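Section: protein folds

Sequence with per-residue tokens
===
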Amino acid sequence: MVDLTVVILTKNEEYNLRKCIESFKGIVKRFVIVDSYSNDGTKVLCEELSKTVNISFYENRFIDYATQLNWGLSNTDINTKWSMRMDADEELTLELVDEIENKLPLMEERIKGIVLKRRVYFMGRWIKHGGKYPELLLRIFRTGFAACEQKIMDEHMILSEGDTTVFKYDIIDNNNKDLEWWTHKHNWYSNREVLDYQQKVLNKNELDQLVDDNLNKGQAAKKRFIKNNGYYKLPLFLRAHIYFIYRYYFRFGFLDGKEGKIYHFLQAYWYRFLVDAKIYECEKMGIMYKNPGALK
């Protein structure tokens, strides 16, 4: 068993959480579930799973993802050498389970963070193209040496010191919920995106820890820099059109079939256009967004 605690945030995740936890194949010491007062069967499921797996269940009012995750890392008595951030709709490949079990206990002391590759599934299909694979994310870290950056949207783990290494195998993002839920979630995301835009992009003097801290340079930092200094410099609405063309044609998103066509259009065009429409509305009407809270 690996000296590792896995922290998972939940809100109505009874359809995803079981496969997430079971994908670890019993190699970790403890799961910490921080729930935003779900009104489905999430709590009951955790009680059921706790009969065979070490699960600690907490409830905490959701403000934003970063605040909730950092609360979970700081207030749940994590005493293992390593901690890991997972989403409820994610799971490990069998190869990654073996890699974690074999490599993590032998990791050099200078290594404080482990970067994992994430593959996204949509309607049951692996979205390999359009720049979606691999997504490189800092997910495993020595306890006490990382925190989630305080951001409304697109938040990442930030190391306080040490080096990182990249594991070979993947985590899988494969949500079991339907397209209606997906579009509802991205409408919620768009509110967070506009608020983040108003708080960060328009406040040009505010530092971005992910971009400005050399310790945390990586794929995520590069994407953030391009988004803030390239994408947001393009004309409103036109940029969504350009981004979709780039993803679907120049990054070969069309090779992902019908599922990929739906995904890349909705995620790269519809969603980005919706964000721009809300930004335009705010600028025209003088609206300042407030924190949207938890997904309902």
